[in-house]
Amino acid sequence: MFAFLHDSKILWGVFQVLNYCVSRASTPLLLTVTIALLAARLLSALREIRKLPPGPWGPPVVGYLPFLGIRHKKFLELAHNYGALFSARLGNQLTVVLSDYKLIREAFRREEFTGRPNTPLMHTLDGLGIINSDGRLWKNQRRFLHEKLRDFGMTYMGNGKRIMETRIKSEVYDLIQNIRYTNGLAIDPNPVLALSVSNVICGITMSLRFSHGDARFERLNYLIEEGMRLFGEVHYGEYVPLYNYLPGKAQAKEKVARNREEMFAFYQTLIDEHRQTLDVNNARDLIDTYLIEMAKAETEGRSQDLFEGRDHELQLKQILGDLFSAGMETIKSSLLWMIVFMLRNPAVKRRVQEEIDAVVGRNRLPNMEDMARLPYTETTILETLRMSSIVPLATTHSPTKDVELNGFKIPAGAQVVPLINWVHMDPNLWEEPKSFNPSRFIDENGKIKRPEYFMPFGVGRRMCLGDILARMEMFMFFSCLMHQYDVELNEGDPMPSLEGIVGATIAPKAFRVRFVPRSSPLPVAPVTPPDHSQLRYVGSH
Ligand code: HEM
Protein backbone atom coordinates (compact mmCIF):
# COMPACT_ATOMS: atom_id res chain seq x y z
CA MET A 1 0.00 0.00 0.00
CA PHE A 2 2.77 2.39 0.88
CA ALA A 3 5.04 1.16 -1.84
CA PHE A 4 6.22 4.66 -2.71
CA LEU A 5 7.75 4.95 0.76
CA HIS A 6 9.69 1.77 0.21
CA ASP A 7 11.78 3.46 -2.39
CA SER A 8 14.68 4.75 -0.32
CA LYS A 9 15.41 7.65 -2.70
CA ILE A 10 11.89 9.01 -2.32
CA LEU A 11 12.07 8.50 1.42
CA TRP A 12 15.33 10.38 1.52
CA GLY A 13 13.79 13.25 -0.52
CA VAL A 14 10.76 13.45 1.80
CA PHE A 15 13.08 13.53 4.77
CA GLN A 16 15.10 16.40 3.23
CA VAL A 17 11.96 18.47 2.55
CA LEU A 18 10.65 17.93 6.09
CA ASN A 19 14.04 18.77 7.51
CA TYR A 20 14.11 21.97 5.48
CA CYS A 21 10.57 22.96 6.63
CA VAL A 22 11.33 22.32 10.28
CA SER A 23 14.68 24.11 10.20
CA ARG A 24 13.09 27.14 8.53
CA ALA A 25 10.04 26.88 10.79
CA SER A 26 7.93 27.48 7.73
CA THR A 27 4.43 26.52 8.93
CA PRO A 28 2.55 26.96 5.60
CA LEU A 29 5.15 24.87 3.82
CA LEU A 30 5.01 22.19 6.52
CA LEU A 31 1.23 22.10 6.23
CA THR A 32 1.36 21.84 2.44
CA VAL A 33 3.84 18.97 2.59
CA THR A 34 1.79 17.14 5.24
CA ILE A 35 -1.39 17.48 3.16
CA ALA A 36 0.47 16.35 0.03
CA LEU A 37 1.79 13.31 1.88
CA LEU A 38 -1.63 12.44 3.24
CA ALA A 39 -3.20 12.84 -0.20
CA ALA A 40 -0.53 10.61 -1.74
CA ARG A 41 -1.17 8.03 0.95
CA LEU A 42 -4.91 8.19 0.39
CA LEU A 43 -4.52 7.88 -3.38
CA SER A 44 -2.23 4.92 -2.99
CA ALA A 45 -4.69 3.27 -0.56
CA LEU A 46 -7.57 3.87 -3.00
CA ARG A 47 -5.53 2.42 -5.85
CA GLU A 48 -4.93 -0.70 -3.76
CA ILE A 49 -8.60 -0.98 -2.77
CA ARG A 50 -9.62 -0.79 -6.42
CA LYS A 51 -7.55 -3.90 -7.12
CA LEU A 52 -9.55 -5.89 -4.56
CA PRO A 53 -12.72 -7.81 -5.48
CA PRO A 54 -15.81 -5.58 -5.13
CA GLY A 55 -17.92 -5.77 -2.01
CA PRO A 56 -19.88 -3.93 0.67
CA TRP A 57 -18.43 -1.20 2.85
CA GLY A 58 -18.71 -0.81 6.60
CA PRO A 59 -17.68 1.69 9.28
CA PRO A 60 -14.02 1.94 10.28
CA VAL A 61 -12.65 -0.59 12.81
CA VAL A 62 -15.58 -3.03 12.59
CA GLY A 63 -16.15 -2.94 8.83
CA TYR A 64 -19.04 -5.11 7.64
CA LEU A 65 -18.94 -7.27 10.76
CA PRO A 66 -22.07 -5.84 12.52
CA PHE A 67 -24.21 -6.57 9.42
CA LEU A 68 -23.07 -10.15 9.02
CA GLY A 69 -25.57 -12.24 11.03
CA ILE A 70 -25.37 -15.88 9.94
CA ARG A 71 -22.29 -15.85 7.75
CA HIS A 72 -23.13 -18.41 5.09
CA LYS A 73 -26.59 -16.90 4.59
CA LYS A 74 -25.41 -13.30 4.40
CA PHE A 75 -22.71 -14.33 1.93
CA LEU A 76 -25.44 -15.76 -0.34
CA GLU A 77 -27.11 -12.34 -0.42
CA LEU A 78 -23.81 -10.58 -1.07
CA ALA A 79 -22.89 -13.04 -3.85
CA HIS A 80 -26.20 -12.11 -5.51
CA ASN A 81 -25.26 -8.43 -5.36
CA TYR A 82 -21.53 -8.53 -6.05
CA GLY A 83 -21.00 -11.69 -8.08
CA ALA A 84 -18.78 -14.76 -8.01
CA LEU A 85 -15.86 -13.08 -6.27
CA PHE A 86 -16.45 -10.44 -3.63
CA SER A 87 -14.64 -9.11 -0.61
CA ALA A 88 -15.69 -7.53 2.68
CA ARG A 89 -13.61 -6.12 5.47
CA LEU A 90 -14.63 -7.75 8.75
CA GLY A 91 -12.86 -5.85 11.50
CA ASN A 92 -9.17 -6.00 10.65
CA GLN A 93 -9.53 -9.02 8.37
CA LEU A 94 -10.23 -8.90 4.67
CA THR A 95 -12.60 -11.74 3.73
CA VAL A 96 -12.82 -12.90 0.12
CA VAL A 97 -15.74 -15.12 -0.88
CA LEU A 98 -15.73 -17.35 -3.97
CA SER A 99 -19.00 -18.70 -5.27
CA ASP A 100 -18.08 -19.83 -8.78
CA TYR A 101 -17.05 -23.48 -8.77
CA LYS A 102 -14.41 -22.98 -11.47
CA LEU A 103 -12.84 -20.16 -9.48
CA ILE A 104 -12.91 -22.27 -6.31
CA ARG A 105 -11.17 -25.11 -8.11
CA GLU A 106 -8.66 -22.77 -9.74
CA ALA A 107 -7.77 -21.12 -6.43
CA PHE A 108 -7.63 -24.15 -4.16
CA ARG A 109 -5.39 -26.22 -6.38
CA ARG A 110 -2.71 -23.51 -5.99
CA GLU A 111 -0.04 -23.94 -3.35
CA GLU A 112 -0.40 -20.29 -2.22
CA PHE A 113 -3.96 -20.95 -1.03
CA THR A 114 -2.97 -23.64 1.47
CA GLY A 115 -2.18 -21.11 4.23
CA ARG A 116 -4.35 -20.49 7.26
CA PRO A 117 -5.23 -17.01 8.56
CA ASN A 118 -3.28 -15.44 11.37
CA THR A 119 -5.97 -14.79 13.99
CA PRO A 120 -6.19 -15.04 17.80
CA LEU A 121 -7.89 -18.45 17.44
CA MET A 122 -4.95 -19.71 15.42
CA HIS A 123 -2.65 -18.45 18.18
CA THR A 124 -4.65 -20.41 20.76
CA LEU A 125 -4.24 -23.54 18.66
CA ASP A 126 -0.60 -22.63 18.13
CA GLY A 127 -0.68 -23.69 14.46
CA LEU A 128 -0.56 -27.34 15.51
CA GLY A 129 -2.51 -30.37 14.30
CA ILE A 130 -3.71 -30.81 10.71
CA ILE A 131 -6.73 -28.52 10.30
CA ASN A 132 -5.14 -25.31 11.54
CA SER A 133 -1.51 -25.89 10.66
CA ASP A 134 0.06 -24.69 7.44
CA GLY A 135 3.43 -24.60 5.69
CA ARG A 136 5.79 -27.53 6.04
CA LEU A 137 4.19 -28.90 9.22
CA TRP A 138 0.82 -29.20 7.47
CA LYS A 139 2.29 -30.66 4.28
CA ASN A 140 4.27 -33.34 6.10
CA GLN A 141 1.41 -34.18 8.46
CA ARG A 142 -1.06 -34.49 5.62
CA ARG A 143 1.23 -36.87 3.75
CA PHE A 144 1.92 -38.85 6.94
CA LEU A 145 -1.77 -39.12 7.87
CA HIS A 146 -2.80 -40.13 4.34
CA GLU A 147 -0.30 -42.95 4.36
CA LYS A 148 -1.00 -44.16 7.90
CA LEU A 149 -4.78 -43.89 7.73
CA ARG A 150 -4.68 -45.94 4.55
CA ASP A 151 -2.95 -48.66 6.58
CA PHE A 152 -5.86 -48.53 9.01
CA GLY A 153 -8.35 -49.09 6.22
CA MET A 154 -9.13 -45.65 4.82
CA THR A 155 -8.94 -46.98 1.28
CA TYR A 156 -11.28 -48.46 -1.29
CA MET A 157 -8.83 -51.20 -2.13
CA GLY A 158 -7.51 -54.46 -0.82
CA ASN A 159 -7.50 -55.83 2.66
CA GLY A 160 -7.55 -52.36 4.21
CA LYS A 161 -11.06 -51.79 2.91
CA ARG A 162 -12.26 -54.96 4.64
CA ILE A 163 -10.58 -53.97 7.91
CA MET A 164 -12.42 -50.67 7.90
CA GLU A 165 -15.68 -52.27 6.81
CA THR A 166 -15.52 -54.69 9.74
CA ARG A 167 -14.83 -51.86 12.13
CA ILE A 168 -17.78 -49.85 10.82
CA LYS A 169 -20.02 -52.91 10.70
CA SER A 170 -19.49 -53.62 14.37
CA GLU A 171 -20.79 -50.12 15.19
CA VAL A 172 -23.66 -50.36 12.70
CA TYR A 173 -24.82 -53.67 14.20
CA ASP A 174 -24.62 -52.22 17.69
CA LEU A 175 -26.69 -49.26 16.57
CA ILE A 176 -29.34 -51.47 15.00
CA GLN A 177 -29.50 -53.50 18.19
CA ASN A 178 -29.73 -50.41 20.42
CA ILE A 179 -32.49 -48.96 18.28
CA ARG A 180 -34.41 -52.20 18.64
CA TYR A 181 -34.75 -51.51 22.38
CA THR A 182 -36.76 -48.36 21.57
CA ASN A 183 -39.68 -50.61 20.46
CA GLY A 184 -40.72 -48.21 17.74
CA LEU A 185 -41.23 -45.33 20.18
CA ALA A 186 -40.18 -41.84 19.11
CA ILE A 187 -36.59 -40.94 20.04
CA ASP A 188 -34.11 -38.18 19.43
CA PRO A 189 -31.69 -39.96 17.07
CA ASN A 190 -28.80 -37.62 17.88
CA PRO A 191 -27.25 -39.36 20.94
CA VAL A 192 -27.38 -42.91 19.54
CA LEU A 193 -25.79 -41.80 16.28
CA ALA A 194 -23.18 -39.73 18.15
CA LEU A 195 -22.06 -42.79 20.09
CA SER A 196 -21.78 -45.10 17.08
CA VAL A 197 -20.02 -42.57 14.86
CA SER A 198 -17.61 -41.55 17.65
CA ASN A 199 -16.67 -45.17 18.18
CA VAL A 200 -15.54 -45.50 14.57
CA ILE A 201 -13.12 -42.57 14.64
CA CYS A 202 -12.00 -43.19 18.24
CA GLY A 203 -11.30 -46.84 17.34
CA ILE A 204 -9.00 -45.82 14.48
CA THR A 205 -7.19 -43.09 16.35
CA MET A 206 -7.09 -44.27 19.98
CA SER A 207 -8.48 -47.85 20.16
CA LEU A 208 -11.19 -46.37 22.29
CA ARG A 209 -14.73 -47.57 22.35
CA PHE A 210 -17.50 -46.03 24.44
CA SER A 211 -20.66 -47.69 25.64
CA HIS A 212 -24.03 -46.12 26.45
CA GLY A 213 -23.95 -43.98 29.56
CA ASP A 214 -20.14 -43.89 29.62
CA ALA A 215 -19.33 -40.83 31.75
CA ARG A 216 -16.13 -40.15 29.80
CA PHE A 217 -18.03 -40.05 26.52
CA GLU A 218 -20.53 -37.61 27.97
CA ARG A 219 -17.72 -35.44 29.33
CA LEU A 220 -15.82 -35.52 26.01
CA ASN A 221 -18.93 -34.46 24.14
CA TYR A 222 -19.68 -31.77 26.67
CA LEU A 223 -16.15 -30.38 26.28
CA ILE A 224 -16.40 -30.33 22.50
CA GLU A 225 -19.78 -28.62 22.65
CA GLU A 226 -18.54 -26.14 25.25
CA GLY A 227 -15.43 -25.47 23.16
CA MET A 228 -17.62 -24.59 20.15
CA ARG A 229 -19.85 -22.38 22.26
CA LEU A 230 -16.90 -20.55 23.83
CA PHE A 231 -15.23 -20.01 20.47
CA GLY A 232 -18.58 -18.57 19.35
CA GLU A 233 -18.48 -16.17 22.32
CA VAL A 234 -15.04 -14.84 21.48
CA HIS A 235 -15.60 -15.05 17.73
CA TYR A 236 -15.74 -11.24 17.20
CA GLY A 237 -12.29 -11.05 18.77
CA GLU A 238 -11.02 -12.84 15.66
CA TYR A 239 -11.73 -9.66 13.73
CA VAL A 240 -11.61 -6.87 16.31
CA PRO A 241 -8.87 -7.72 18.83
CA LEU A 242 -10.11 -5.01 21.25
CA TYR A 243 -13.32 -7.04 21.63
CA ASN A 244 -11.38 -9.59 23.70
CA TYR A 245 -10.85 -6.91 26.35
CA LEU A 246 -14.58 -6.26 26.88
CA PRO A 247 -16.02 -7.35 30.26
CA GLY A 248 -16.62 -11.10 30.36
CA LYS A 249 -14.55 -11.87 27.29
CA ALA A 250 -11.33 -12.47 29.24
CA GLN A 251 -13.16 -15.12 31.30
CA ALA A 252 -14.42 -16.75 28.10
CA LYS A 253 -10.85 -16.93 26.82
CA GLU A 254 -9.72 -18.46 30.10
CA LYS A 255 -12.51 -21.03 29.82
CA VAL A 256 -11.34 -21.85 26.28
CA ALA A 257 -7.87 -22.51 27.70
CA ARG A 258 -9.25 -24.69 30.56
CA ASN A 259 -11.45 -26.61 28.12
CA ARG A 260 -8.42 -27.35 25.97
CA GLU A 261 -6.37 -28.37 28.99
CA GLU A 262 -8.98 -30.91 30.07
CA MET A 263 -9.28 -32.36 26.57
CA PHE A 264 -5.54 -32.62 26.30
CA ALA A 265 -5.29 -34.26 29.75
CA PHE A 266 -7.75 -36.90 28.50
CA TYR A 267 -5.61 -37.55 25.41
CA GLN A 268 -2.45 -37.54 27.53
CA THR A 269 -3.78 -40.39 29.71
CA LEU A 270 -4.41 -42.44 26.59
CA ILE A 271 -0.97 -41.65 25.17
CA ASP A 272 0.66 -42.71 28.46
CA GLU A 273 -1.35 -45.98 28.48
CA HIS A 274 -0.28 -46.63 24.89
CA ARG A 275 3.36 -45.93 25.65
CA GLN A 276 3.39 -48.55 28.40
CA THR A 277 2.19 -51.29 26.06
CA LEU A 278 3.78 -50.10 22.81
CA ASP A 279 5.07 -52.69 20.37
CA VAL A 280 7.08 -50.83 17.71
CA ASN A 281 6.41 -53.61 15.19
CA ASN A 282 2.68 -53.55 15.64
CA ALA A 283 0.78 -50.26 15.51
CA ARG A 284 -2.65 -50.77 17.01
CA ASP A 285 -3.95 -47.32 16.14
CA LEU A 286 -2.91 -43.78 15.23
CA ILE A 287 -1.48 -43.02 18.70
CA ASP A 288 0.85 -46.01 18.32
CA THR A 289 1.79 -44.87 14.82
CA TYR A 290 2.86 -41.46 16.14
CA LEU A 291 4.71 -42.97 19.11
CA ILE A 292 6.59 -45.31 16.75
CA GLU A 293 7.49 -42.38 14.50
CA MET A 294 8.79 -40.43 17.50
CA ALA A 295 10.85 -43.40 18.70
CA LYS A 296 12.26 -43.88 15.19
CA ALA A 297 13.21 -40.22 14.91
CA GLU A 298 14.99 -40.43 18.25
CA THR A 299 16.98 -43.52 17.24
CA GLU A 300 17.98 -41.83 13.99
CA GLY A 301 18.97 -38.63 15.79
CA ARG A 302 16.42 -36.41 14.00
CA SER A 303 14.08 -35.75 16.90
CA GLN A 304 14.56 -31.99 16.71
CA ASP A 305 13.43 -31.95 13.07
CA LEU A 306 10.35 -34.11 13.58
CA PHE A 307 7.10 -32.12 13.22
CA GLU A 308 9.17 -29.06 12.36
CA GLY A 309 10.66 -29.06 15.82
CA ARG A 310 7.30 -28.54 17.52
CA ASP A 311 6.41 -30.32 20.78
CA HIS A 312 5.74 -33.90 19.59
CA GLU A 313 3.10 -34.87 22.14
CA LEU A 314 1.29 -31.55 21.80
CA GLN A 315 1.15 -32.11 18.05
CA LEU A 316 -0.22 -35.64 18.58
CA LYS A 317 -2.88 -34.37 20.99
CA GLN A 318 -4.00 -31.69 18.53
CA ILE A 319 -4.16 -34.33 15.76
CA LEU A 320 -6.41 -36.52 17.94
CA GLY A 321 -8.65 -33.52 18.66
CA ASP A 322 -8.76 -32.50 14.99
CA LEU A 323 -9.67 -35.95 13.72
CA PHE A 324 -12.32 -36.44 16.38
CA SER A 325 -14.02 -33.12 15.71
CA ALA A 326 -13.71 -33.45 11.91
CA GLY A 327 -14.74 -37.09 11.78
CA MET A 328 -17.62 -37.24 14.22
CA GLU A 329 -19.86 -34.19 13.89
CA THR A 330 -19.79 -34.24 10.07
CA ILE A 331 -20.92 -37.86 9.73
CA LYS A 332 -23.49 -37.56 12.51
CA SER A 333 -25.04 -34.42 10.97
CA SER A 334 -25.13 -36.04 7.53
CA LEU A 335 -26.91 -39.12 8.91
CA LEU A 336 -29.40 -36.92 10.75
CA TRP A 337 -30.12 -35.04 7.51
CA MET A 338 -30.63 -38.38 5.71
CA ILE A 339 -33.32 -39.28 8.26
CA VAL A 340 -34.92 -35.84 7.85
CA PHE A 341 -35.00 -36.19 4.07
CA MET A 342 -36.46 -39.70 4.31
CA LEU A 343 -39.22 -38.39 6.58
CA ARG A 344 -39.96 -35.57 4.17
CA ASN A 345 -39.72 -37.73 1.03
CA PRO A 346 -41.41 -41.08 1.72
CA ALA A 347 -41.39 -42.00 -1.99
CA VAL A 348 -37.58 -41.74 -2.05
CA LYS A 349 -37.39 -43.78 1.15
CA ARG A 350 -39.53 -46.55 -0.38
CA ARG A 351 -37.42 -46.59 -3.54
CA VAL A 352 -34.21 -46.89 -1.49
CA GLN A 353 -35.70 -49.79 0.47
CA GLU A 354 -36.97 -51.50 -2.68
CA GLU A 355 -33.53 -51.23 -4.25
CA ILE A 356 -31.81 -52.66 -1.17
CA ASP A 357 -34.35 -55.49 -0.87
CA ALA A 358 -33.97 -56.39 -4.55
CA VAL A 359 -30.16 -56.39 -4.52
CA VAL A 360 -29.33 -57.53 -0.99
CA GLY A 361 -32.46 -59.48 -0.08
CA ARG A 362 -33.96 -59.75 3.38
CA ASN A 363 -31.60 -62.42 4.73
CA ARG A 364 -28.48 -60.36 5.24
CA LEU A 365 -27.46 -56.74 5.78
CA PRO A 366 -25.87 -54.60 3.05
CA ASN A 367 -22.07 -54.45 2.91
CA MET A 368 -19.46 -52.43 1.06
CA GLU A 369 -19.49 -54.84 -1.91
CA ASP A 370 -23.12 -53.87 -2.49
CA MET A 371 -22.34 -50.17 -2.81
CA ALA A 372 -21.70 -50.33 -6.58
CA ARG A 373 -24.99 -52.20 -7.07
CA LEU A 374 -27.11 -49.74 -5.07
CA PRO A 375 -26.90 -46.54 -7.16
CA TYR A 376 -30.17 -45.06 -5.92
CA THR A 377 -29.17 -45.58 -2.28
CA GLU A 378 -25.76 -44.04 -2.95
CA THR A 379 -27.21 -41.05 -4.82
CA THR A 380 -29.71 -40.46 -2.00
CA ILE A 381 -26.64 -39.92 0.19
CA LEU A 382 -25.11 -37.59 -2.43
CA GLU A 383 -28.34 -35.62 -2.75
CA THR A 384 -28.45 -35.24 1.04
CA LEU A 385 -24.89 -33.88 1.02
CA ARG A 386 -25.81 -31.46 -1.78
CA MET A 387 -28.93 -30.09 -0.16
CA SER A 388 -27.61 -29.88 3.38
CA SER A 389 -24.11 -28.51 2.59
CA ILE A 390 -23.18 -29.24 6.19
CA VAL A 391 -19.87 -27.38 5.90
CA PRO A 392 -21.10 -24.48 3.74
CA LEU A 393 -17.93 -22.40 3.98
CA ALA A 394 -15.47 -25.32 4.16
CA THR A 395 -12.39 -24.08 6.01
CA THR A 396 -10.80 -20.66 5.75
CA HIS A 397 -7.83 -20.55 3.41
CA SER A 398 -5.33 -17.72 3.43
CA PRO A 399 -2.90 -16.90 0.63
CA THR A 400 0.71 -17.10 1.71
CA LYS A 401 1.58 -14.23 -0.68
CA ASP A 402 -0.26 -11.63 -2.75
CA VAL A 403 -2.01 -13.45 -5.59
CA GLU A 404 -4.15 -12.54 -8.56
CA LEU A 405 -7.46 -14.26 -9.15
CA ASN A 406 -9.82 -13.40 -11.98
CA GLY A 407 -8.05 -10.06 -12.46
CA PHE A 408 -8.34 -9.05 -8.79
CA LYS A 409 -5.69 -8.92 -6.13
CA ILE A 410 -6.05 -11.20 -3.10
CA PRO A 411 -3.53 -9.93 -0.56
CA ALA A 412 -1.45 -12.30 1.54
CA GLY A 413 -3.21 -13.07 4.83
CA ALA A 414 -6.76 -12.44 3.52
CA GLN A 415 -9.40 -14.95 4.62
CA VAL A 416 -10.64 -16.83 1.56
CA VAL A 417 -13.80 -18.94 1.79
CA PRO A 418 -15.67 -20.96 -0.83
CA LEU A 419 -19.46 -20.59 -0.76
CA ILE A 420 -20.30 -24.25 -1.18
CA ASN A 421 -24.00 -23.81 -0.34
CA TRP A 422 -24.29 -21.39 -3.30
CA VAL A 423 -22.60 -23.83 -5.69
CA HIS A 424 -24.84 -26.68 -4.50
CA MET A 425 -28.05 -24.68 -4.99
CA ASP A 426 -27.15 -22.71 -8.13
CA PRO A 427 -30.09 -22.99 -10.59
CA ASN A 428 -27.63 -22.50 -13.47
CA LEU A 429 -25.96 -25.77 -12.48
CA TRP A 430 -28.78 -27.86 -11.04
CA GLU A 431 -32.30 -28.36 -12.33
CA GLU A 432 -34.83 -27.41 -9.67
CA PRO A 433 -32.12 -27.28 -6.98
CA LYS A 434 -34.62 -27.03 -4.14
CA SER A 435 -36.28 -30.35 -4.86
CA PHE A 436 -34.81 -33.54 -3.36
CA ASN A 437 -34.04 -35.68 -6.36
CA PRO A 438 -31.33 -38.38 -6.05
CA SER A 439 -31.77 -39.31 -9.75
CA ARG A 440 -30.01 -36.11 -10.78
CA PHE A 441 -26.75 -37.95 -9.97
CA ILE A 442 -27.56 -40.89 -12.27
CA ASP A 443 -26.66 -40.70 -15.96
CA GLU A 444 -28.53 -42.17 -18.92
CA ASN A 445 -26.65 -45.49 -18.51
CA GLY A 446 -27.75 -45.85 -14.92
CA LYS A 447 -24.24 -44.98 -13.67
CA ILE A 448 -23.53 -42.49 -10.91
CA LYS A 449 -22.18 -39.13 -12.09
CA ARG A 450 -20.55 -36.60 -9.81
CA PRO A 451 -20.41 -33.23 -11.55
CA GLU A 452 -17.34 -31.15 -10.81
CA TYR A 453 -19.55 -28.57 -9.12
CA PHE A 454 -20.52 -31.12 -6.47
CA MET A 455 -18.01 -30.44 -3.70
CA PRO A 456 -19.25 -31.40 -0.20
CA PHE A 457 -15.69 -32.36 0.79
CA GLY A 458 -14.13 -29.21 -0.62
CA VAL A 459 -11.59 -29.31 -3.45
CA GLY A 460 -7.89 -28.89 -4.01
CA ARG A 461 -4.91 -29.33 -1.76
CA ARG A 462 -6.76 -28.94 1.54
CA MET A 463 -9.74 -31.02 0.54
CA CYS A 464 -11.23 -33.27 3.26
CA LEU A 465 -8.76 -35.87 4.44
CA GLY A 466 -11.47 -38.28 5.55
CA ASP A 467 -13.72 -38.43 2.46
CA ILE A 468 -13.18 -42.16 1.90
CA LEU A 469 -13.99 -43.01 5.50
CA ALA A 470 -16.98 -40.64 5.37
CA ARG A 471 -18.41 -42.29 2.27
CA MET A 472 -17.94 -45.78 3.68
CA GLU A 473 -19.54 -44.86 7.00
CA MET A 474 -22.48 -43.02 5.49
CA PHE A 475 -23.21 -45.89 3.12
CA MET A 476 -22.99 -48.60 5.79
CA PHE A 477 -25.05 -46.75 8.42
CA PHE A 478 -27.69 -45.48 6.01
CA SER A 479 -28.18 -48.64 3.95
CA CYS A 480 -28.34 -50.90 7.04
CA LEU A 481 -30.78 -48.60 8.83
CA MET A 482 -33.02 -48.46 5.76
CA HIS A 483 -32.81 -52.24 5.41
CA GLN A 484 -33.92 -52.81 8.99
CA TYR A 485 -36.22 -49.89 9.81
CA ASP A 486 -38.86 -47.60 8.49
CA VAL A 487 -38.33 -44.09 9.75
CA GLU A 488 -41.62 -42.49 10.73
CA LEU A 489 -42.87 -39.40 12.47
CA ASN A 490 -44.66 -39.73 15.76
CA GLU A 491 -48.27 -38.72 15.42
CA GLY A 492 -48.61 -35.03 16.23
CA ASP A 493 -44.89 -34.26 15.93
CA PRO A 494 -44.02 -31.52 13.43
CA MET A 495 -42.14 -32.40 10.27
CA PRO A 496 -38.43 -31.64 10.90
CA SER A 497 -37.45 -28.38 9.27
CA LEU A 498 -34.84 -27.91 6.55
CA GLU A 499 -33.63 -24.91 8.51
CA GLY A 500 -30.40 -26.10 10.11
CA ILE A 501 -28.66 -24.86 13.21
CA VAL A 502 -25.20 -23.43 12.89
CA GLY A 503 -22.53 -25.11 14.99
CA ALA A 504 -19.43 -27.00 13.99
CA THR A 505 -21.58 -28.10 11.03
CA ILE A 506 -25.06 -27.17 9.85
CA ALA A 507 -27.12 -29.82 11.64
CA PRO A 508 -30.90 -30.35 11.66
CA LYS A 509 -32.78 -28.83 14.57
CA ALA A 510 -33.61 -31.42 17.27
CA PHE A 511 -36.40 -33.77 16.15
CA ARG A 512 -37.88 -37.13 17.08
CA VAL A 513 -38.32 -40.16 14.89
CA ARG A 514 -39.77 -43.65 15.24
CA PHE A 515 -37.64 -46.51 13.96
CA VAL A 516 -40.26 -49.09 13.09
CA PRO A 517 -38.79 -52.57 12.39
CA ARG A 518 -39.44 -53.67 8.82
CA SER A 519 -40.58 -57.19 7.99
CA SER A 520 -38.26 -60.01 9.09
CA PRO A 521 -35.77 -57.94 11.09
CA LEU A 522 -32.45 -59.76 11.23
CA PRO A 523 -30.95 -60.96 14.47
CA VAL A 524 -27.78 -58.89 14.55
CA ALA A 525 -25.03 -60.59 16.49
CA PRO A 526 -22.20 -58.32 17.59
CA VAL A 527 -19.35 -58.29 15.10
CA THR A 528 -15.90 -58.87 16.54
CA PRO A 529 -13.31 -57.11 14.47
CA PRO A 530 -10.81 -59.57 13.01
CA ASP A 531 -7.44 -59.95 14.70
CA HIS A 532 -5.66 -57.98 12.03
CA SER A 533 -7.82 -54.94 12.78
CA GLN A 534 -5.97 -54.73 16.12
CA LEU A 535 -8.92 -52.99 17.74
CA ARG A 536 -8.50 -52.94 21.46
CA TYR A 537 -11.09 -52.04 24.03
CA VAL A 538 -9.62 -49.81 26.67
CA GLY A 539 -10.95 -47.67 29.50
CA SER A 540 -14.31 -48.66 30.89
CA HIS A 541 -14.58 -51.91 28.92
C1 HEM B 1 -19.83 -36.16 5.60
C2 HEM B 1 -18.66 -36.08 6.15
C3 HEM B 1 -17.64 -35.00 5.89
C4 HEM B 1 -17.74 -33.83 5.19
C5 HEM B 1 -18.96 -33.29 4.46
C6 HEM B 1 -16.45 -33.17 5.27
C7 HEM B 1 -16.16 -31.96 4.67
C8 HEM B 1 -14.93 -31.33 4.77
C9 HEM B 1 -14.63 -30.05 4.18
C10 HEM B 1 -15.59 -29.23 3.33
C11 HEM B 1 -13.35 -29.75 4.50
C12 HEM B 1 -12.60 -28.47 4.13
C13 HEM B 1 -12.02 -28.50 2.75
C14 HEM B 1 -11.43 -27.16 2.37
O1 HEM B 1 -11.44 -26.22 3.14
O2 HEM B 1 -10.97 -27.04 1.24
C15 HEM B 1 -12.84 -30.82 5.31
C16 HEM B 1 -11.56 -30.85 5.82
C17 HEM B 1 -11.09 -31.88 6.61
N1 HEM B 1 -11.75 -33.06 6.92
FE1 HEM B 1 -13.62 -33.56 6.40
N2 HEM B 1 -15.61 -33.95 6.01
C18 HEM B 1 -16.28 -35.08 6.40
C19 HEM B 1 -15.77 -36.14 7.14
C20 HEM B 1 -14.49 -36.23 7.63
C21 HEM B 1 -13.96 -37.36 8.37
C22 HEM B 1 -14.71 -38.65 8.69
C23 HEM B 1 -12.69 -37.04 8.72
C24 HEM B 1 -11.75 -37.88 9.55
C25 HEM B 1 -10.77 -38.52 9.22
C26 HEM B 1 -12.39 -35.72 8.17
C27 HEM B 1 -11.19 -35.05 8.28
C28 HEM B 1 -10.93 -33.81 7.73
C29 HEM B 1 -9.66 -33.10 7.92
C30 HEM B 1 -8.48 -33.58 8.76
C31 HEM B 1 -9.76 -31.89 7.22
C32 HEM B 1 -8.71 -30.80 7.11
C33 HEM B 1 -7.77 -31.07 5.95
C34 HEM B 1 -6.65 -30.04 5.86
O3 HEM B 1 -6.74 -28.98 6.48
O4 HEM B 1 -5.70 -30.29 5.11
N3 HEM B 1 -13.51 -35.27 7.52
N4 HEM B 1 -13.81 -31.79 5.45
From TrEMBL:
GO terms for biological process: organic acid metabolic process; xenobiotic metabolic process. Belongs to the cytochrome P450 family. It comes from the Eukaryota. The keyword Nucleus does not apply. Its cofactor is heme. GO terms for cellular component: cytoplasm. Keywords: Heme, Iron, Metal-binding, Monooxygenase, Oxidoreductase. The keyword Heme applies. Heme binds at C464. InterPro entries: Cyt_P450, Cyt_P450_CS, Cyt_P450_E_grp-I, Cyt_P450_sf, Cytochrome_P450_fam2. GO terms for molecular function: heme binding; iron ion binding; oxidoreductase activity, acting on paired donors, with incorporation or reduction of molecular oxygen, reduced flavin or flavoprotein as one donor, and incorporation of one atom of oxygen; steroid hydroxylase activity. PROSITE patterns: CYTOCHROME_P450. This is Cytochrome P450. PANTHER family: CYTOCHROME P450 18A1 (PTHR24300:SF413), CYTOCHROME P450 508A4-RELATED (PTHR24300). It comes from Diatraea saccharalis.
